[in-house]
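Contributing new complexes? Match this layout with zinc ion.
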Amino acid sequence: MGHPTPSYRYGKVVFILGIESSCDESGVALVKIDPPLSSQVQSATKVEKIELPQLLAHALHTQIEMHQPYGGVVPELASRDHIQRIIPLLKQVLQTSGVDIHQVDLVAYTKGPGLAGALLVGAGVAACLASSMDLPLMGIHHLEGHLLSPFLSEDPPSFPFVCLLVSGGHTQLMRVQSMGQYELLGESVDDAAGEAFDKSAKLMGLDYPGGAELSKLAQTGNDKAYQFPRPLLHSGKLDFSFAGLKTSVLTQVKKMSDSEIEASKHDLAASVQAAIVEVLVKKSVAALKLTGLKTLVVAGGVGANQSLRKNLKEECARLGAKVHFPEMHLCTDNGAMIALAAAMRVQYGIEQGSKSYAFDVKPRWALGDLPR
Ligand code: KG4
Ligand code: ZN
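Output block (do not edit by hand):
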């Protein structure tokens, strides 16, 4: 027997709860769609103008400090911590927004990709909440959340655009034709950009995850002090490779004593950052030229990098293109982007959520395999 398709009444505000637990951040958020759906909205192609969802509240707990002594994320500790955090974060979001839990219309959670155990916590809580209140449940792709996150900024983009998705686990260039329509143009064949930042930072003796710390040091360093490789820069393709950079940084620091590394850390950081940023910028420009699109959207944790932001703004201005970023606090993982993705899936008529409650998680999941 089929399950009834949930319907959202036209004329009524729709409240959507989002839960993120794919890695080392627990996030909960509430968005509203106002004005809500029009019954004419059937497919993305027919959508003329849709009001963007509004973020009412979001709460986040980062586990970074807990994992730091281990130099990376310990999956079992991550799952156990999510269990303790999600309900208190949910209470905080409801209190801040002034919305009662019984006003919620849809519960969304990160279904993948990510750590299986960590994902299961968010999925389990979301399914329990939804089934206990007889609400529809929707599993969201974490990367779709990231790539839509600039829609919550003060200067939101509009479709179509090229997306540069740069996180700790992924480096991808995509053509985003409309909501749910994602075409992969290129991706990293080995390490992700965030990984390249973090591994280089670790070799310099910085704490995990060193990306943000490295970029702080880089602000006052000489980016030409060391020549690190820019792999695949002139390959003519939109793929990335960052593993060679890490090896090159390793070779360099092996030649130096601890005190020499300490004395040169600003220059080392600036040179590493320059290598990563140059590749990301040149490939993004190539993707804009290839597609003929004039809008670039940057998403993911590395999108917080100031040098990347500055260089992309300059290069896009030169091309007559515009670049959009998420708000700084929404670059790394958060629940807001999950609630947002669910809201936009509903608005564009792609998915309404389901009351089957047969939740599952997909630790590995290609963005192209999403329902559209
Ligand atoms: O998107 P995200 O929170 O996690 C994943 O979904 O993977 O991204 C985290 C990544 C980490 O590698 C972190 O070092 C990096 O983003 N990151 C930065 C900066 N802030 C965070 N990398 C470079 N510069 C930054 N300012
Ligand atoms: Zn992420």
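Reviewers usually confirm one structural detail per submission. For this one: The pocket of KG4 (ligand 1) is lined by residues 23, 167-169, 194, 197-198, 209, 211-212, 215, 300-302, 304-305, 332-333 (CB under 6 Å).
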